[in-house]
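Friendly challenge for the regulars: who can give me the structure tokens for this chain first? No prize, just bragging rights.
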Amino acid sequence: MATENRINFWRRNAKVPGRYPKDTKPKFNNPKSKKASSFHEFARSTNDAWDIDEEEDEDFLGTPAQTSSLSSGLHSSSTQNQQNQVGDAETRVSHSPGTEDQDLQDVGEEDAECEHVNGKVVKSSGDVHLNTSSVRSTLQKQQSLPVRPIIPLVARMSDQNASGAPPMTVREKSRLDKFKQLLASPNTDLEELRKHSWSGIPREVRPITWRLLSGYLPANKERRELVLKRKREEYFGFIEQYYHSRTDEHYKDTYRQIHIDIPRTNPLIPLFQQPVVQEVFERILFIWAIRHPASGYVQGINDLVTPFFVVFLSEFVTEDVENFEVAALPLDTQRNIEADSFWCMSKLLDGIQDNYTFAQPGIQNKVKALEKLVSRIDEDIHNHFQRYEVEYLQFAFRWMNNLLMRELPLRCTIRLWDTYQAEAEGFSHFHLYVCSAFLIEWRKEILSMVDFQGLLMLLQNLPTIHWGNEEVGLLLAEAYRLKYMFADAPSHYKR
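First reply, four minutes later:
Bragging rights claimed.
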């Protein structure tokens, strides 16, 4: 029954991702094809089922405080499609099409009895096991998601290594004590704090450390509470002053785009599908956009809120953050997390705003710099891209626009940002070397691909779902080596 529904769904939809029209015969394997035709031929011959038609968005401005949702027919079909993706793990539970409603009731009863596993989709062990109850519980929380298959390992946000090693060791305990000592001093030595933060910040002190390193809080301990109170009040003053204008003619397009993008933000993590969280993100992004008219809101900025939100939320949550119900927190706590996320995101964007101004010149320049750097450090990869007509802009634009957030699990992004905050120009300069190291990490896989489409699909779907602190640490070490070799030697960019 599920298979039949999935087949009928795609028959009813003209737009099928990755499928070619019958009368189209693209030729991606021919390296001698004309320069201008390869990528355009690929783009013309594939349809994108993610496109949202205008008529589907007409109701957004009419319900500004609610999260968007797909039509019931599309969601029903996508649910069946997602359940089919589960595969062998799904078959371990007997289930018939006529008992779905009863099963969902059973999920609710199980959640009431076992709150510690509420909404958890997978266990992060060697062999990932899914069960029907947890899958359906997560699907219920993803009412507003676009059609998307379930990944066998949901991006857990807790610190972990791919090897499964515990994050807290004797060395980490010693480092935590050092951080607490630094933070407890009347005037925190920010240079010393950056030095210790470069190799990762312990979870317990990450919120206060991020506030300090981003420049949101002063180094003087006595002034911090006063600054926090003033900045939080200032943010909610912006809400009272500007947020009602989201339906005005001048701002409605901005708000509409934000409203569309937010449900797509980390769609596999239940935390970000909660209405209260999505409303927080709408307010943060809208206020930032109207206070920065030179750039306004640009797709991709929505991703940059999530690490700050998760880190500041973790200050009040001891269990798994990805399944925590934010509405259970006191209202003042929710407001403080929202305000702190806004200000820290603003500090980050102040350093890379040219990435989001008209024509995004900052990203264009960074992609060109990446191409020049890769041509020097790994000529084989560079020549391979040229041979199969792969342009760096086709995959690296997203790396720069989203700061690799679409390529890495969120837990890895948070660890990566520990180092970015510790670097003097982490987000604007060091990120280039991280992207270079990240590309070289997949050297073997890249060189094994011998066609344009295969290369592009690999570069846009790199298998990092099992990455943890260990892998990010190695990536950062290689990026630091590249920076040490090339940052102060501009002639190394030249052939």
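The first helix runs from residue 2 to 12. The mean pLDDT is 77. Your move, everyone else.
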